[in-house]
Structure formats: C-alpha cells, structure tokens
Design brief:
Length: about 220
C-alpha cells in the first residue's frame, strides 16, 4: 500500500505531524510506500500579522501540549498573495536527489522554530544550502523554474481533488483498491489502526488468490 502526505512547509499543524510521519515510516518500512507532496495553502489561509499567527500557534501548542513555542518571525518575509517560497525550494530539492524529508524539515524548523524568513526565496535558499550543500544559484534557478511550479500546482490540485481542506492530509491506498483519507489528523493512533486494517485486507486477498486463483471469466 501507499501513503501520500500532503503538506505546506510553513503549516504549524504539518510541523506537529512530523513525528507521526517519521514513526509511520520507521514502523512500516518495506511494507508501505511513502510519498510527500506539496499542497500550497491559499493566500487567505495564511495569517496576515505576527499577532494573528501567534494566536494560532498558541492554540496548536496547547492542543499538542508542546514544551516548545513556535516563532512567527517568518511571516514578515511573506508577500501577500504569493505562495511560500519554502514549498518550491523543498520541491526543487527532489531534482538534486534530496527526495527524503531532510530539506523540508530544515526549512520548517528554520521558519517555525527560529523565525527565519523562509517564506521568501533569499531566506529559503540560504537554509537549503546550509542543510544540503547544494549550490545556491542552481537551486534557486530550479526552485523558480516553470517545471517546479507546474509540479507544485499539480500536487496542490490533487489535494483539492480529494475534497480536502486541512493540512496535513494523508491519503492511504492499497493494491485492492481501498482508500482512506485523513485531513487535519496529526496523531499516530488512527493512522496505525487504518494501516493495519488495510494491510490485513490485502493479505487476506492474497491468501484467497493463492487458494482459488483469479475470478472465473464472465
């Protein structure tokens, strides 16, 4: 089976979901395929001031009982109506072999824990270069390319085609055509329960096929 994780790099709820994502990857390594995709937040989904951003941060920190506080300093680097540069830099990293979580996690930490200006390309590229060692000029050229913009637009469209509104979102699909969708869920337990149920069904189908073969022709 496969799990697709739709995220916005500078979403606090995606930040809180990262331990769950890491645990799922460790627990089901070799049994489940994992993929993350960017789902740009709409301009109106972003807070417009640091005060407003802090209000949302305090709420999510309370819900998650977090021992740390998030930093809204990155909001000052965001251009109104423009998607976060951090998303495009994270996506561009894939073209240089950075296909895991390390780059986008570095960007999220720099922005949401340290308040660095990663919503703008200058800040996002600086963090990415420090995290990966990639050349700044080449990485920026790729992050601002039509090809990366098209991929982000396509993955964002996929997110909305699932009729989702909240990030993080997890779409679970199996080889027998089952699908489960979680939107806004950050905790491990419901995802594990669903994965176990779906894997059990896939295994049961395999056992049945081993005993009885393919279905009779119509």
């Amino acid at each position: 089976m496969k799990i697709t994780y739709y995220l916005e790099v500078l979403s606090s709820w995606c930040y809180w979901a990262e331990p769950t994502w890491a645990e799922l990857k460790a627990r089901y390594a070799g049994r489940v395929e994992f993929e993350w995709k960017i789902a740009n937040m709409r301009p109106e989904d972003f807070p417009t001031t640091r005060e407003q951003c802090d209000w949302f941060y305090r709420r999510s920190e309370m819900v998650m009982r977090s021992p740390v506080m998030l930093n809204s300093g990155w909001i000052d680097s965001r251009q109104s109506g423009v998607p976060s540069a951090a998303n495009y830099v994270a996506e561009a990293g894939k073209d240089f072999g950075v296909v895991g979580d390390e780059l986008r996690l570095a960007l999220a930490h720099a922005g949401e824990r340290e308040g660095k200006p990663v919503a703008a390309f200058d800040g996002a590229i600086a963090v990415a270069v420090a995290a990966t060692g990639l050349a700044a000029t080449i990485l920026r050229q790729r992050a601002e390319s039509p090809e990366v913009a098209a991929r982000v637009a396509a993955s964002t469209a996929d997110f909305f085609q699932h009729q989702l509104t909240q990030r993080p979102a997890f779409v679970l699909t199996s080889a027998i055509g089952d699908k489960a969708v979680f939107s806004g869920v950050v905790r491990l337990e419901p995802l594990v329960a669903t994965i176990e149920a779906m894997l059990a069904d896939v295994a049961a189908y395999a056992v049945h096929r081993a005993h009885f073969g393919d279905p009779p022709a119509a």
